[in-house]
Amino acid sequence: MTIKLVTTAAELHAESGRLLMHKHGASQGLVPTMGAFHAGHRSLIDAARAECDVVVVSIFVNPAQFGETTDLSAYPRDEQHDLDVAEDAGADLAFCPAVTAMYPPGFQTWVEVSELGSILEGVHRPGHFRGVATVCLKLFNVVRPDVAYFGQKDAQQVEVIRRLLEDLSLDIDLRVLPTVRDADGLALSSRNELLSPEQRQLVLALPRALATKDPQQARAQLDGLEVDYVAVVPFDPPVLAAAVRVGAVRLIDNVPMEEAHEHATA
Ligand code: AMP
Questions:
Q1: Exactly one of 13, 22, 41, 261 is catalytic; which is it?
Q2: Span between the terminal Cα atoms of the chain, in Å
Q3: Is the pLDDT of residue 135 over 80?
Q4: Is 24 marked active-site?
Q5: Is 155 close to ligand 1, i.e. is its CB under 6 Å away?
Q6: What is the DSSP letter of 118?
Q7: At residue 152, does pLDDT exceed 60?
Q8: Of all protein residues, whose CA lies closest to atom 3 belonging to ligand 1?
Q9: Which of 1, 27, 72, 168 has its CA 20 to 30 A from that of 205?
């Protein structure tokens, strides 16, 4: 089956209605993304395909979660590649709304997950989780999924979304998939494409540091990099999380402190 690209809520409802028709009790899964697909995104779509009757992948580079316009304009985009990956994974619908559809003129309603959104990443990227929470709620309202798929790679984002679902009484199951890594240990990220070969060698210290599962040892291993934070955080599961900067590129990563959450490899 070929994937169907839709850009408006009306089109999405028409298409998902058609797919869900006559399927009483059918489930709909949503994989929210910003595109530039790699094996991490693919693992989320694969899980959704295995678990849901209808799979919607949203691709929207959300301006509201970027602080600096340079970061937003540098963000890699390749819609055709993303559609090919999503189709190959068996997704039914790709929802790619325009910025003006998500943020119409006069837009002024924001979702603030106040405490969880202001620690760690929130300190270094003020307003980031306000943008994430708002766009996710909006996507949830438009797509109306039964299950939403997120990556453990962005552990704080998962906590923010979990809180949002609970606080605003949304009846959506949250599924969290393990971090997919390259063979050298670096967590897959669309921002990795922005690293020079030398910078990539330098940031391999990040997965090595986190693998110690010890904040002091991790900090020592990160010596020489610009470190925004390294901390054990009481998320579900508890993680050792860190953010580093190399040149203009900022990378985040985390490892669960518990054994049960082993990482997948690309
Ligand atoms: P993004 O397109 O960066 O917003 O990511 C979309 C989803 O993919 C988010 O839920 C991310 O946590 C998840 N994701 C990103 N990188 C990885 C990875 N290396 N492994 C697993 N999931 C990932």
A1: 41
A2: 25
A3: yes
A4: no
A5: no
A6: T
A7: yes
A8: 34
A9: 72
Query: For ligand 1, is residue 153 a contact (CB within 6 Å)?
Result: yes
Is 70 exceeded by the pLDDT of residue 264? no
pLDDT score of 262 more than 90: no
Mean pLDDT of all residues in 168-180:
98
Q: Mean of the pLDDT values across residues 95-123?
A: 98
The tokens for 118 are 């202001």
Please tell me the residue having the least CA distance from ligand 1 atom 12: 151
Residue 42 Cβ inside 6 Å of ligand 1? The answer reads no
| CB 189 less than 6 A from any atom of ligand 1 | yes
- What b/e readout covers 211-233, taking b as 16+ CB neighbours within 10 angstroms? eebbbebbbebbeebebbbbeeb
Q: Is the CB of 131 under 6 A from ligand 1?
A: no
Give the angle subtended at the CA of 192 by the CAs of 191 and 194, to the nearest 5°.
Answer: 70
pLDDT in tens, 185-195: 999 999 999 99
Q: Which atom of ligand 1 is nearest to the CA of 37?
A: 2
At CA 146, angle to CA 143 and CA 151, rounded to 5? Answer: 85
Average pLDDT, the chain: 95
Beta bridge partners of 226: 245
How much is the pLDDT for 31?
99
Instruction: Yes or no: say if 93 and 4 are a contact pair by the CB < 8 Å rule.
Output: yes
| pTM for this entry | 0.96
Q: What are phi and psi of 125, to 5 degrees?
A: -130, 75
Q: How many angstroms is it from 23 CA to the middle of ligand 1? A: 30
User: Which 3 state secondary structure label does DSSP give 114?
Assistant: coil
